[in-house]
Specification:
Blueprint: H1 2-14, H2 25-36, H3 40-43, H4 46-51, H5 56-83, H6 90-98, H7 100-130, H8 141-161, H9 163-194, H10 197-204, H11 214-227, H12 244-273, H13 282-290, H14 297-326, E1 336-338, H15 345-359, H16 364-367, H17 372-392, H18 405-424, H19 428-438, H20 440-449, H21 456-468, E2 470-472
Antiparallel strand pairs: 1-2
Helix pairs in contact: 2-9, 2-12, 2-14, 5-11, 5-12, 5-17, 6-7, 6-17, 7-8, 7-14, 7-15, 8-14, 8-15, 9-12, 9-14, 14-15, 17-18
Amino acid sequence: MEEEFLFYVKRKEKDKMQLKRSIGYFDGVSFIIGSIVGAGIFVSPMGVLKHSLLNIGVALTIWTASGLVSLMGSLCYAELGTALPFSGGEYSHIKRGLGSLPAFMFIWTSTFTKPASNAARALLFAEYATQPFYGICPAPEVLKKCLALAVLWSLGILNGRSVKMAAWVQTVFTLLKMIALSVIAIGGIVLLIGGRKESLARFEDAFGSEIPNASQVAEAFFQGLYAYGGWWSLNYMAEEMKNPSRNIPLTVMTAVPAVIVFYLLVNISYLTSVSNSEHVAVAVTWADRVIPSVAWIIPLSVAVSIFGALNSSMFTLGRLSYAGSQSGHLPGLISMLNVHSCTPAPAMIFSTTIASIFIIPSDLIMLTNYFGFSAWLMIGLTCASLIVLRYREPHLHRPYKVFLPIPFVMVAMSFFLVLAPIVWSPNLQYVYAFLFMLGSLIVYLPFIHFKLHFAFLDKITCHLQLLLEVSPADGSAEDKCE
């Protein structure tokens, strides 16, 4: 049996064992929008308004500015994605621009924080999906955790078996959440056109309220940038994009501006019907007042939105694990591809298993709140990599080139966003998070730098390879089973 499988693997290798370019322009747009639009825009967008001291003009300006920063970052990533169209996103770019150690530090931290984020999304989905059946009573924790695990593994299996099916699911759920946002946006436009005095009065003197100070503006800015999180997701699938030189910049320039416009329209719609003091579940309150007969659509839309964001996040996390393994920063098995579908099934199993661990004692998820600064640290390092590569590899083929001052602005912005919460709200947990990142050296030095290796792991890899029916991708390490 083993010999038959090895013969099959060799035959498949002759047919090019590698990720297939099956993600087109519309799929890419769906993944970016699906990654950005999560539960936040439905549940608590008034956080920006609160920190803006209820100044509507300032709040809408911050939403716009947050979107423009996200667009600048995505344009920097578009240059890197077209010049280096490999799986792994920031990891691959940092490794090329800054070296192996910063890249390993990134994947070490991401292996902890990104699955925890997926676990949190799965639990939030389970909460919204089960709560209607329990009315005012809280749903049992065991039920929510079981449903969260079921959703995680369903999406993990889906992404591990078929890229086309995962992209189809992403497109469907992105369309559903955009329909929900359109309902809210159109509802607000109708109210404004209808000329309700209380609705129009809020916009007549938009900047008339108290102006927030610098720290309050910065806090509101954090809230806005958090709502736009996910714009970096496309580069994780660059290796699977059809015609990446064309589609990556085009996808970015379509998806991110579309989200900016929708976010502004949705916020304006909220302000037409929800008072400034109502800061929680604002979309639900809006629905109760504007479309009371079908208000149930909004809680359903929140669950749909979370599900779509979770699918996109799991897809990209699998590609990060795959890229890290190909570079020797994770076990070699993780970079192998299923011989039937050419999908990174071991990478999906690896990342889904870690996320499942976070769901069981869900208190662990709270620890990741103090790793928020690490996301912007890695964005800053990625944009710094772009600058380094511009000067170190001037002849590198770049189908798209961003205006050079933009990555400098992004580097400055990123390091401000890293330092600001630590300086303004010092907490011992930030020290623990930083020490955890430095702890990557304990693993990097013996296993990566000095290449310490245990022979018994080869046998384990061989048996798992046969069990999972996977084979090394072209260009990866040699098949240890041969």
